[in-house]
Design a protein that fits this description.
Immunoglobulin-like, 4-stranded antiparallel sheet, elongated
Length: 252
């Protein structure tokens, strides 16, 4: 009789209806989900920042560079959003990580000069702004210099393809034809067999380009770069493309 009762207790405990219900699947807490969303936003936000913006300030009508001029960079909503800094001895400042898709507002001021403010269109390559201040007073002014709020410099300009003699690997002539496809609207180009474009002048943009290789047989590497420049009142803005290169062997 005791064995029978023991068996009944065992069967009762293993009956499907008497088993513990399965534990529900754990879902991420609301805090965890918000953290994930925050992380995703951070990644997207980081990709919206781009290159460098350099600013050089001079006295209008002269080549004199202005030291300790206040330069503030921001947006139409906040003219100093990215900070206010002073130019160095060379009259220049540099910002990093500027948003590539946002119009920027640049203001420059200094006692004894008339301040200037310009709007810079979105620009996805590094660029330099040359801005001159007339002597006098008044005009827009920057506030007290303070640290840059976000590390800061940008319209799309690039060399997509670059070839010598339509991609030939060898030539017996020093005079060659450079062909290329570009993104954007360049105004100038420069070409050189030196990676740093030593002594290479900017030339009004044209396509294709005739180029004379340096004398001497052997492998030649030719470097090519584009520039876009335009002027606003009191300022000249220029942006440069990536540097493209191509090789060809010059026969003896």
């Amino acid at each position: 009789m005791k064995r029978l009762k023991k068996k009944m207790r065992t069967e009762k405990s293993t009956h499907p209806l008497m088993m513990s219900p399965p534990r529900p699947e754990r879902r991420p807490s609301r805090v965890a989900r918000l953290g994930l969303v925050s992380l995703m936003c951070t990644v997207v936000s980081a990709s919206s920042w781009a290159n460098e913006l350099s600013v050089r300030v001079s006295k209008q009508g002269t080549s004199q560079l202005i030291k300790s001029a206040a330069v503030c960079l921001g947006t139409p909503a906040d003219h100093a959003q990215f900070g206010t800094v002073l130019t160095g001895a060379g009259g220049d400042v540099r910002f990093s990580q500027v948003p590539a898709s946002t119009p920027l507002v640049l203001t420059v001021s200094k006692a004894g000069f008339q301040g200037r403010r310009i709007v810079i269109e979105p620009y996805r390559t590094d660029r330099t702004v040359f801005l001159s201040l007339p002597a006098g007073a008044g005009g827009p002014a920057c506030g007290r210099p303070e640290p840059v709020a976000a590390p800061v410099a940008s319209n799309l300009l690039g060399v997509d393809e670059f070839q010598i003699n339509d991609g030939a690997v060898e030539t017996n002539e020093r005079d060659v034809v450079l062909s290329y496809s570009v993104t954007g609207s360049p105004t100038h180009y420069r070409v050189s067999e030196s990676r740093n474009f030593a002594a290479a002048a900017w030339v009004p943009f044209q396509s294709p380009v005739q180029y004379r290789l340096s004398p001497g047989a052997g492998m030649k590497t030719v470097y090519f770069q584009l520039r876009r420049t335009h002027s606003q009142t009191g300022a000249s803005i220029q942006g440069e493309s990536n540097v493209a290169s191509s090789r060809i062997r010059l026969g003896g």
